[in-house]
Amino acid sequence: MNLSNIVIVLDHPDESRNIGAACRAMANNDISDLRIVGNKADYDIEHIHVLAIHAGAIFDNARFFNSITEATSDCAICAGTTRRRGKKRGKLLLPEEFAEMADTTTNNSGKVAVIFGNERTGLTDEQLDECNLGVTIPSSDGFGSLNLSHAVQIMSYHLFRYSLKQKKGEYRGYTPLTLERVDQTVKIITDDMQKIGFFKMPGREDMENFWRSVLSRASLSEGEAQYLEKTFNKMAGLASKNASNSSQQ
Length: 249
Description:
By secondary structure, this protein is an alpha/beta fold. It contains 10 helices and 7 strands.
């Protein structure tokens, strides 16, 4: 995913603060090309910069156009966002499906535009006709309307998240241990408990089953498992040292 080829287009946004918040959302996800259908004079730059925090330059460098068609004339894909389905709106992609499509296009030097409508009305059928596909963000049937900047954040995040796959493979915070690896930790724990005399009576098997049940449900990372093992190893070592000191007195 070449994020420099992603274009965010806001069609006649009402609220200056929403523009600022959208700039911040874009910056969070390494997207910087903002285009606005409307007149720059209609917006309060101070309000925009307050909400943009350190992303005000995205607005300062934004370009203004008279229509979606003009704003996206250099783009290979023009995707309109909408929560409303209808016969004229065709098949709507989910954000993750759209990100996969955008990946190929941006990597081949094509620009991909994501269009967001006015806060009150969204994109009309006529505006969607200026786009060549539609994207929808699933939301509550009871309260489905998203704030403009929130919608920009969600779409930008999915594009950014897809780019991480190329940089870091299957990006994830950690990989939960397999049951086989959990069993190794359980053995170390119960071995150490054996060393300090915990099992003066039969009961090791029950203790192993207890630890196996707890640790498998905890979805431990490798680092957490190693920390547990070191803790029990140290406990067993200290117990052995104290026992040795006592026998020498």
